[in-house]
Fold this protein.
Amino acid sequence: MKNNKTNNTDLYNDGIPTGQYLVIDEQGEKLGTFNREQALKLADEKEIDIVVVSPGSKPMVARLMDYSKYRYEQQKKSREMKKNQQVVQLKEIRLSPTIDTNDLNTKVKQATKFLEKGDKVKVSMRFRGRMITHHEIGRNIFNKVIEALKDLSTVEAAPKLEGNQMVAILAPSKQ
């Protein structure tokens, strides 16, 4: 039998608290309710570890198993889940109120690439000087961008004016 390690939070072997335990064997069958000493003795007789699976229940549920194998499986699952996680980033596309059609198409293509990779896209436009009085031109450009990307994205934050900047956030649509 192994001793309790201090670097993890699992309760097993001598580290289990005092109380009543519903003990389950390796095959998943209930062996009955035992106190701490009886449960430890049973695990010692079978030369296997006893691990508290559900410490919050009454009685606490403990399982007879090979603890090192159990930890290995848990770590393997954790690594697999981390590997399968996709980190969503926020990419920014900057526009100008005086942007030309071909430049706008280039920006839309770039936003398309970002959305296909699964990243969110922040579309921003800075108004300089007197351009702020014509913010409806900027809103029209934003509407063109949103229309061009409507099959790839959903609008997470609609275009809104924040000071001298207009911002919208597009998230990839779930297909």
